[in-house]
């Protein structure tokens, strides 16, 4: 069991810590953001180099390196968006009376460059790992990007728990694009597909005849997929998940209504697109 316990623990710890670190940096004074982004870009360059260097490494260390490198690339994507450096052509609230495709188009305009950056990041990792036996960086990045997109769509359509304290104030205009609803048609599909993906990856990790590199690689991506699926559950279930990252929000916990975070590196996730509860009520009524 130790052969699986260590990779699982590694995935959980780095998911939890990296998510909290990005939240902490996002909520520091705006004057610190250029410095944080500059440091993050140096980390991005190192992560891409590590991904390329590990593409031919079929050791356990190679699997850990690929996984970590992809998480760091995703961390840059999240920082650049939440700090406002790579967002979209529009930084406006949802237009009054917007419905259907018009509302979706306005929401997309707030993050179009971010979505393009995510695509470019995936293409970069694909190119760096092309033809190499170690593709776990690509697997990791695809899981993060796919589950992040799923969470954003679910929050756009409506979820029970909208994040209260994890959105920086300069992104408060996103409130009008999110809805508070007990359920939406996409959510069950998202959870079922994510659950099936977790089972499939777990079967690969437990398969006979795999070597140590594959066992570590499939185990860490299985753990990540399971965490992303759990984060989807946090969007609907009344669980105090925000307490997991309370340390990253000094002085804010008592001011906001606790709600689950999505996208933890999530990079989780996630992190995805949370909303200030104190500003969202009127905007949700306008959007809904």
Topology:
Blueprint: H1 2-26, H2 33-54, H3 60-82, H4 100-109, H5 112-129, H6 136-157, H7 186-205, H8 212-234, H9 277-287
Helix pairs in contact: 1-3, 1-8, 2-3, 2-5, 3-5, 3-6, 3-8, 5-6, 6-7, 6-8, 7-8
Transmembrane segments: 6-25, 37-55, 112-130, 136-157, 186-206, 218-239
InterPro entries: Photo_alph_chp2
Keywords: Membrane, Transmembrane, Transmembrane helix
Explain how this protein is built:
The protein contains nine helices and no strands. Helices cover 60% and strands 0% of the residues. It is globular. The chain has one domain (2-287). By secondary structure, the chain is an all-alpha fold. Residues 253-288 have low confidence and may be disordered. It has helices at residues 2-26, 33-54, 60-82, 100-109, 112-129, 136-157, 186-205, 212-234, 277-287.
| Shape descriptor | globular
**Count of helices?**
9
Major sheet attributes: none
What is the percent of helical residues?
Answer: 55-70%
What is the strand content? under 5%
Structural class: mainly alpha
Radius of gyration: 18 Å
Mean pLDDT: 85
Summed up, what is this model?
The protein is mainly alpha-helical. The chain has one domain.
What would the keywords be for this entry?
288 residues, mainly alpha, 9 helices, 60% helix, 0% strand, disordered C terminus
């Amino acid at each position: 069991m130790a052969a699986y316990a260590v990779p699982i623990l590694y995935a959980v710890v780095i998911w939890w810590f990296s998510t909290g670190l990005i939240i902490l940096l996002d909520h520091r004074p705006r004057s610190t953001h250029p410095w944080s982004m500059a440091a993050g870009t140096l980390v991005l360059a190192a992560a891409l180099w590590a991904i390329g260097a590990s593409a031919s490494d079929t050791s356990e260390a190679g699997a850990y390196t690929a996984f970590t490198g992809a998480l760091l690339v995703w961390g840059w994507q999240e920082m650049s968006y939440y700090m406002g450096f790579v967002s979209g052509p529009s930084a406006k609230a949802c237009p009054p009376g917007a419905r259907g495709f018009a509302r979706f188009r306005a929401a997309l305009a707030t993050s179009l460059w971010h979505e393009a950056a995510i695509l470019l990041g995936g293409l970069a990792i694909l190119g760096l790992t092309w033809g190499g036996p170690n593709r776990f960086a690509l697997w990791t990045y695809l899981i993060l990007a796919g589950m992040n997109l799923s969470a954003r769509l679910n929050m756009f359509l409506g979820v029970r728990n909208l994040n209260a304290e994890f959105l920086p104030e300069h992104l408060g205009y996103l409130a009008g694009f999110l809805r508070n609803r007990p359920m939406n048609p996409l959510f069950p599909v998202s959870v079922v597909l994510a659950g099936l993906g977790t089972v499939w990856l777990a079967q690969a990790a437990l398969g006979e005849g795999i070597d140590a590199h594959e066992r570590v690689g499939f185990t860490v991506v299985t753990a990540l997929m399971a965490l992303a699926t759990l984060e989807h559950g946090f969007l609907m279930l009344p669980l105090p998940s925000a307490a997991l990252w309370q340390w990253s929000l000094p002085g804010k916990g008592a001011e906001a209504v606790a709600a689950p975070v999505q996208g933890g590196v999530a990079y989780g996730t996630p992190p995805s697109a949370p909303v200030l509860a104190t500003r969202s009520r009127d905007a949700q009524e306008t959007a809904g």
